[in-house]
Amino acid sequence: MKRPILATLVAGAGIACAGALLAPAASAYPVGPWNIEGPCVGAAPQECPMSPSQDGLTWGWKGDAWNYDKTGAFVCMSSSFWCGPLMGVVRALPPTPIGSWINP
Prior knowledge:
Elements: H1 2-22, E1 51-52, E2 58-61, E3 64-68, E4 74-77, H2 83-92, H3 98-102
């Protein structure tokens, strides 16, 4: 009697572990270590056409990107010639409201 119960418990635990390991990773907003929501505020990942960078500061779509500072304020579009160097500064500094200074 004890053997079938133990076998059932072990099988159930194995199925639960396999399900947890094989399930797709859920990516939820906000993104990155600074919890940036970017242009997808309030949207589920499948509802937003933008794809965030790993740190959550750059959100790309159709060859262009929206860039945010670590406080979540919009900084610049990547199509601006000065955006790349400015985002290097944003990434190097601690959370600073650079986007609020540029776009009041």
